[in-house]
Amino acid sequence: MRSREQVIWDFVQNWLKKAEEDLEAARVLVREQLSSYDSAGFFCQQAVEKLIKAVLVRHQIEFPKTHDIAALLKLAARVNNELADSLREATRLTPYGVEFRYPGDYEALDSSEARRAVDIAEKARHTVLSPLQPYLDAGRP
After folding, report:
1. Which end of the chain has fewer CB atoms at under 10 Å, N or C?
2. Could you write out the three-class secondary structure of the chain?
3. Which pLDDT does position 35 carry in this prediction?
């Protein structure tokens, strides 16, 4: 039977793994010649959302089912205000997680904006992993 600490560690690992998969999908999409890069934006938003949720799980902060990066950062600020502040730019990805998934009144993401979204997600990855690294390096309890 897993201990509480092992369950938490496993969930953190799972959130980070899913974030990596989403970020990799976005990277692949921005390398292609597409008519729209909406899916790349979606995967960037998903990656950042999951990275923040990994932090929240690590610190046992409950979060609602939401795609709102600003709302998740507000929760993350409870344990690491500096981290939350440094991820503020990522809030611009929130619309890519919801609005861009369905037909609507918006312009499709172009390759330049998609590359910017990937850059933001890459920065978020580094920003989240840096304070988590000692916890991750210690290994599963």
Report:
1. N
2. CCCHHHHHHHHHHHHHHHHHHHHHHHHHHHCCCCCCCHHHHHHHHHHHHHHHHHHHHHCCCCCCCCCCHHHHHHHHCCCCHHHHHHCHHHHHHHHHHHHHHCCCCCCCCCHHHHHHHHHHHHHHHHHHHHHHHHHHHCCCC
3. 86
Q: Domains in the chain, ordered, with CATH?
A: 10-33+47-107+118-137 (1.20.120)
pLDDT the model gives residue 15: 98
Q: What is the CA radius of gyration of the chain?
A: 15
| End-to-end Cα, the chain, rounded Å | 13
Count other Cβ atoms within 10 Å, centred on residue 53.
Answer: 24
Rounded CA-CA distance 140/98 in Å is: 34
